[in-house]
Amino acid sequence: MLKISVIIPAYNVELYIQKAILSALNQNETGEVLIVNDGSTDDTVLIIENLILSHKKLRLLHHPKGENKGRSASRNLGIKNAVYDYISFLDADDFYLENRFSQELNLFSNNNPIDGVYNAIGVHFYRKASINEKENLKVTTLSKRVNSKDLFSELLRGKSGCFSLDGFTVKKSALVSINFFNESLAVMEDTELIWKLCIKSVLVSGDLVNPVAMRGVHDYNVFNNKGAYKVVHLKFYESLFFWSVQEKLEASIIECFLERVWLVKKEERRGIIIECLYWMELVLNSFSVLFTSLHYKYNPLNRLRYVFRNSKS
To answer: How many CB atoms lie within 10 A of CB 220?
Structure first.
């Protein structure tokens, strides 16, 4: 029977952690639940330790010296300590629904050459919400089934929705192949991981209509912090660009990340000299691009030459 390691990063979530843990333990396919304490200072650890007394599948992990290292480092610690070959994630303020892994059980058990299965998730409000907010957040899913080889381009376009880690199960070997979560990203680390897996692995859809998990919405969700996402936006695309060059991916994939880097950078409107200096730094960190058509196409010096020629005519 399929057995799954469920990983839950936990930081000051005393209000939600028990519900999350029990929802994972109640699944027949759950082989273990690994809670990674990320330096909590409230009663989170006490609640977990009390649950461990009556649940053998529950394990508690800590960072060295009880540090707070963020969600990526916490999930990575869980992955590296996982016993089973299949990994699922659950945020500590979210919870699974009944029969969470029924789609995974069917798809993985049929010996299909797949690395991951993604499903729809719903929403549970821990605070008051407007009618529009309830409708907009009602379900996180893809609006159509997408062939695995087209999944990355579909997610990049953003026209057909997306999927969440709470509704995703993946082989541990696939996570190892992309070197786990990027610990340098404070946010958007989940999107980066999913995009990398779309490129390198075979991901298929499970249930895109009926949610398998519920995202908890409250006043302290990280997605409420728009500023954090704005700060990380450029770093997110830079990371994917450097990764795609290092992995020697096809030019079309490298270019799509380079283009996004350049579009975000140009939004800063800091002038052509700053753009040229930035370009030099970018190329020095991805030297192989220097000898390709991408260098000519995106080099800001070409735009400077164009402006200079027009000014003379």
So the answer is: 12
Specify which residues 87 forms β-bridges with.
Answer: 5, 170
Q: For 66-90, write each residue's pLDDT tens digit.
A: 999 999 999 999 999 999 999 999 9
According to the model, what pLDDT value does residue 313 have? 46
Rounded distance between C-alpha atoms, residue 80 and residue 68, angstroms? 18
Residue 93 per-residue DSSP state:
T
Please tell me whether residues 82 and 213 are part of one structural domain: yes
Residues 110 and 36 occupy one common structural domain: yes
Is there a single domain that holds both residue 220 and residue 265?
no
Q: What is the pLDDT of residue 307?
A: 45
Spans of the chain below 70 pLDDT? 290, 302-313
234/239 Cα distance (integer angstroms): 9
Domain span at 81: 4-224
Same domain, 173 and 196: yes
Whole-number pLDDT of residue 129: 92
- Residue 4 to residues 86, 178, 185: CA-CA distances in angstroms? 5, 20, 26
Contact by Cβ (8 Å): 92, 20: yes
User: How many domains does the chain fold into?
Assistant: 2
Residues 194 and 307 in one domain: no
Among 224, 241, 275, residue at a domain's last position: 224
Paired residues of 34 in beta bridges: 7, 59
Same domain, 263 and 176: no
Residues 51 and 102 in one domain: yes
DSSP readout, 104-149? HHHHHHTT-S-SEEE--EEEEESS---HHHHHHTSEE-BSS---GG
Each residue of 49-67: b (16+ CB within 10 Å) or e? eebbeeeeebbebbbeeee
Q: Are residues 107 and 179 in the same domain?
A: yes
The pLDDT, as a whole number, for residue 299 is 76
Q: pLDDT value at position 91?
A: 98
Last residue of a domain, one of 200, 224, 248: 224
The phi, psi pair for 37, rounded to 5°, reads -75, 125
